[in-house]
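Supplementary Methods, section 5.1.

A reviewer requested that the exact input to the structure prediction be made available. We therefore reproduce it here, unchanged from the version used in the analyses.
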Amino acid sequence: MTTSSVEAAVTVEASQAEVEAFVGQVMGDTSAWIVTTMAMIGDQLGLWRALADSRPTTSAELAEQTDTAERYVREWLSSMAAHGYLTFDPATERFTLPPAHVPVLGIESPTFFGGFHHALYGLSSMLKPVVEAFQHGGGVHLSSYPDDWWRGFERFSSGWFHYLLPQVWLPAMPEVNAALSRGADVADIGCGRGKALIRLAEEYPAGRYIGFDVHEESITAARASAEAAGVADRVRFECRDVSAGIPGDYDVITTFDVIHDATDPQGILREVRAALRPEGRYVCLDVNASHRLQDNTGPLGAYFYGVSVLFCLTTSLAQNGVGLGTCGFNEHTARQMCLEAGFGTVRRVDIANPFNILYDITA
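The structure derived from this sequence is encoded token-by-token as follows.
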């Protein structure tokens, strides 16, 4: 089709108003990418932390406080103010991070996005190899991802384990909570840098904990974190692909945002089932998505599918995996796969979380 025939088709099939409306949407989405990129830079340079006291500041004052170049800081502040992340007083030329924005951008809290932005900062460097995977097939291996991705995701998920795991999630699973309180043998599959197990070991010191992950660098970091937290006497970490078998047997096995990423998710579920004691429980946190695309529309669904392309899907395909993708272990699929793996009951825990579903699963 020639350029002129394409233009004619557009004229026939879409009104100018429809075209302009979509231009507005794309402009807004493009602006959001720029704003998010600026937010990522703010996290990297400590600008948000410096603004967290909500005191009005000038660009020169913020630059001096953060040891950055004033002209860049002034432009960054202007971008953030233009989008409403900051307020600006033209009389004093001072910028303020409103108090309601502080727990989102300035300090760690249940609503903190700084770790998320840190992870995206690392993920943005992976565009070229992902594009090459589009062209040639295969995927991008875990070892290719930069430390910023791993450290950012650790900071992001730390909010789950610090603010939600002991206070909200475990009380909603009384049998699991009771087992941990008595002193359980616990395994965390896909443990990453170990934050979940370290938090459990702090909250339930009578337990015995081991974490497994295929990413050697994360295991090294997890061991160091356990030492720093003073729980290395009861928390161990091992680099292992558990789809080939989980050593030992356990009262509680956990996976936090892991199964949808896995090379062999069904194999992992079978091994988890085999490693659980008769009265054991499997605690599974995964993505809150539907098995139907039409139910996943909107900003959150678009984010899920995009991160899938950039990490979840491609890292599975890189290892000749099934490539479930971010939305692939939805509730419908999770129930089917757990049944096939031989589990008893699968209960969705009521946690009212737009990002994740928590399951309490019996052996």
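Strands lie at 87-89, 94-96, 185-189, 208-213, 235-239, 250-256, 276-287, 346-349, 356-362. These observations are discussed further in the main text.
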